[in-house]
């Protein structure tokens, strides 16, 4: 009679450890028009995906912004596209991320001050320079119960991701140094 071998703890970490749900790349311009079109062109060149315009939620007369006016653009990446972009984006920061970039749920947000820091981007005086925000949303397998339409439930605390887990994940997978 053969005994089944127990799976090592490392396999459990692979199955139940944190994973990247999505990467959101955002450029906030603050106005509609030519600058917003240039920002959308920059995001499309960097990510390879068509951006969606973000709309203002309120009116601010001092800044000349009306409600529902396009003021920025963003792209949401998932799966392999998200990992490829994240490797390029972390390379612009020399694989270093500040510890305050991680929130309590393990998500990570950081900024890139200049789009020309990416290897394949060159400065074009017609476009100018745009900075961007990169937000990485982390989850574990099983988070679908929070979002599904039928029989929706809350995620228990023991199943949520936390800062330390995600820092370890980024160190192992992307060789990121937390400063």
Could you explain how this protein is built, in words?
With 179 residues, the protein is an alpha+beta fold. The chain has one domain: 2-Layer Sandwich (50s Ribosomal Protein L5, Chain: A). 29% of the residues lie in helices and 22% in strands. The protein is built from 5 helices and 7 strands. The chain has helices at 9-16, 34-47, 79-92, 144-147, 163-174, and strands at residues 19-28, 52-55, 70-77, 96-97, 108-112, 132-139, 177-178. Strands 2-3-1-6-5 form a 5-stranded antiparallel sheet, covered by helices on one side. A two-stranded parallel sheet has the order 4-7. The longest helix is centred in the first third of the chain and has 14 residues, at 34-47. It is globular. The chain starts with 8 loop residues before the first helix and ends with a strand.
Summarize the structure.
This protein is α+β, with helices and mostly antiparallel strands and about 180 residues long.
């Amino acid at each position: 009679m053969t005994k089944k071998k127990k799976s090592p703890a490392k396999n459990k970490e692979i199955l139940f450890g944190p994973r990247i749900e999505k990467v959101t790349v955002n450029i906030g311009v603050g106005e509609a028009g030519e600058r917003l079109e240039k920002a959308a062109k920059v995001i499309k060149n960097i990510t390879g995906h068509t951006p969606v315009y973000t709309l203002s939620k309120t009116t601010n007369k001092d800044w000349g912004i009306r409600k529902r006016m396009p003021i920025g653009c963003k792209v949401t990446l998932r799966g392999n596209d998200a990992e490829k972009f994240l490797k390029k984006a972390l390379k612009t920061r020399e694989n270093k991320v500040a510890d305050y970039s991680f929130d309590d749920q393990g998500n990570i947000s950081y900024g890139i001050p200049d789009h020309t820091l990416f290897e394949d981007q060159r400065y074009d005086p017609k476009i100018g320079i745009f900075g961007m925000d990169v937000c990485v949303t982390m989850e574990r397998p099983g988070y679908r119960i929070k979002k599904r339409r039928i029989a929706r439930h809350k995620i228990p605390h023991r199943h949520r991701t936390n800062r330390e887990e995600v820092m370890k994940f980024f160190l192992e997978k992307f060789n990121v140094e937390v400063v």
